[in-house]
Amino acid sequence: MILETLYEGTVRTLLSIVVLPLLITILTVGLIIFLRIITQGRPDIEVLERFKFLRYEAGNPMKGEARRVLSMQYFGYLVMFLALEPAVILVAVTLLASREALSSILAIYLILILVLSPLLIYGFRESRKIDSWVLD
């Protein structure tokens, strides 16, 4: 009886859309907090190693800038790639799916396009900005 309830269509949908992503999110946040706790640096490291945060740690004579501005000209392309990658993978899954599951996969695909279209538009606009290609 419990197995029949678990394998109902609505329960499986609820588990796959709500419970599983929530569980993955909770585990990911827990892992991030755990890693942050175990990798905390010493608060007195600047006192112990005073040369660590100086401009030239190796003791070489100063010549030019130590740090440069990070170039972000490919940020828009990265955003577009990250938005399109799930859609491409879903197309591959659609090719492998049976005829019975095809309508539900296509519905998910349409929802995915609707959700990711603002991100694609943002990535396209960012990639066309000329200012990010010029470094000062």
Describe this structure in words.
The protein has 136 residues and is mainly alpha-helical. The chain has two domains: 1-42; 71-136. 66% of the residues lie in helices and 0% in strands. The protein is built from five helices and no strands. It has helices at residues 2-6, 9-38, 45-48, 75-96, 99-127.
Which series of helices and strands comes N to C? HHHHH
Whole-number count of domains: 2
Contiguous runs where pLDDT drops below 50 for at least 5 residues: none
Largest sheet: none
How would you sum up the global shape?
flat
Instruction: Give the number of DSSP strands.
Output: 0
Beta-strand residue fraction = under 5%
Mean pLDDT: 77
Structure keywords:
mainly alpha; flat; 0% strand
What's the short version?
The chain is mainly alpha-helical and about 140 residues long. It has five helices and no strands.
Q: How do the strands and helices of this protein lay out in sequence?
A:
Blueprint: H1 2-6, H2 9-38, H3 45-48, H4 75-96, H5 99-127
Helix pairs in contact: 4-5
